Amino acid sequence: MKKISFKIALLYFVFGFMACDDELNGLQPFTEGNPETFFNSLTTFQNGVDGAYAQVRNYYTNANFGFQGIPDILSDNVILVQTGRRSNEIYYDYRYVPNTGGPIALYWSEAYEAINAANLVIGQIDNLTNSPEKNNILGQALAIRALAHFDLARTFAKIPTQSGDANGSPGIIYVKVEDGDTGDPFAQPSRETVQSNYAEIIGDLERASQLIGTSNGEGRLDRNGVFGTLSRVYLYNGQYQDAIAAANQVNTPLATAAELPGMYTDSNNAGIVFELAINTSNEMGSDDNPPSGNNVGVLYSQSSAGSTISEYAVEFDFWNSIDPNDQRRNVLQFVGTNQGNDYNAILKFLGEAGQVNGRVDNKVIRAAEVVLNKAEAQFELGLESEALASLDVLRNLRFTSFTGGETGQTLEDAIQFNRRVELAFEGHRFFDIKRRGESIVRSNNGDIIDGSGTPAEIQMLEAGDFRFQLPIPVDETNANPNLIQNEGY
Fold this sequence. Notes:
The longest helix has 25 residues, at 132-156. This protein is of the alpha+beta class. 38% of the residues lie in helices and 10% in strands. The strands form 7 sheets. The chain has a two-stranded antiparallel sheet with strand order 1-4. A two-stranded antiparallel sheet has the order 2-3. α5 runs antiparallel to α6, α7 runs antiparallel to α8 (223-236) and α13 (367-380) packs antiparallel against α15 (408-422).
C-alpha cells in the first residue's frame, strides 16, 4: 500500500551527524538532492535513519511542549503552580482548539517528518546488497516509522481499548512508501480507521523485530527497543497474549532502587530500553545564548541554586498516597521554594548530576514499563497469580517492605497504581487513563506543599469526552479537505 504525506512536499532527510559519547548530535536538515543517488552506502543510510531519530527527538524533548510532559499535564499527576509562568495552562484546562498551536502543531508536524525521513530510507534500501547491516538499517527505519505513527494515533485518535466504537473510528493517515517510490507529495488522503492504523503499526514493528540488531548505541532503537515498543502497542490494542510474549523478549535488567537516582541524572543507564539522548557537552548555552530546545525539564520547572520556579508540582493527594516504604519517592519530589511558598516540585528531568537546567536524556521505554505491561496483560487474561508475580518482580526492587498478596480488583488497582508511580512525569498517565476508558479525576487540593492554595479549574474530564482526542492542526485540515477534523472541535 503506497501513501505519501500531504504535509511535507519536499523530500526530507538528514545527514552529516556527529557522534559524541554515543549521543546523536548536530544533525542538520538536507532538503535538496536525489535520494536514489545519495543513499549509496551503509554510512549514508545510517545518516538518513539518524535524521528520522532527530525528528522524533524534536517532539519528545522540546523544552516547552515535550511529549514526555504534556500527557502528565493533561492528567491528574500534576497541579498548575500559580507563581510559575502558567505555561501550557490551555492544555491543563482542556481549552485547546485546532488553532492552538504548541504541542498540537509540534507533534503532528515532527512525527510526520520523522515518518518521511524513515520512508526515504525504506524506499531506497535495495541500493544496498543483502547483509545483516542492511537488515539492521531497515529494521530501525521501520521501527521509527511505527513509533511516530503510534504517537500520532494515540494523540489524535481513539485507542482500541478505549471504547467499543474505537476500532471503527477515524484514525490517522499511515504514510508508507516502499520499493523506491517517493509517491505523490501533493496527495490528499483521507483518515483511515484506528483498527487499520494499529494493524500497520504492529506490522512494521513485527517486521522490524526480525531485522534489527541487538545493539545500536545510545539514542537508537535495537531489538530490545522494538520488543519493548511492541509490548506497549499490543497492550493498547488489547492483544494481551502478544503483549506478554513481546515483554518476554526484552532482556534489559530492571534498575534497582539504588540505581534510579543516577538513571534520572544520566549517571547510569540502568533499566533503559530506549532513550532519546541529549548531548549536553556543547549545548549548555549561557544566559545570553541559551540552548535551543532540549531542556526537557523546563516544562515542569526552572531552577537555580537559590530558588525553583515550578510550572507544575506533584499533585498533593497523589504524592501523599505513595507509601513511605516506596523508594521511588526519592526520584519524584523535592521541596521547591518560590515567593515564600514551598511546593512539591518535580525531581525527574531536573538535570544531570549537579545541574538544574532540565537537560537530561528522555527515557522513552524502560524495563519497568515492560514488566508492568506484562503484569496488566496477564491480569486482563485472568492470570492473576502470574500478574502478581510480575508485579512483585518490580516491587521487590522498589519497596523496603510491602504486604502484597492482592487478588481481584485489589490486584488490578495495585498494578495500575504502581504503573502511575513508576512512570510518573514521563508522558504516560493521560494515555493510560484514555486507553482504559476511564475519567480523569483531580482533587480539590491546591498547589502549595500542604495542599492549600489554588486547586485545578477543571477537576474532571469524563470518560468519552471528545477532548481525549486532541484536535488536528487547522493548517492541516485547511490544506487537505479530505482530512476530517475530530468530533467536537
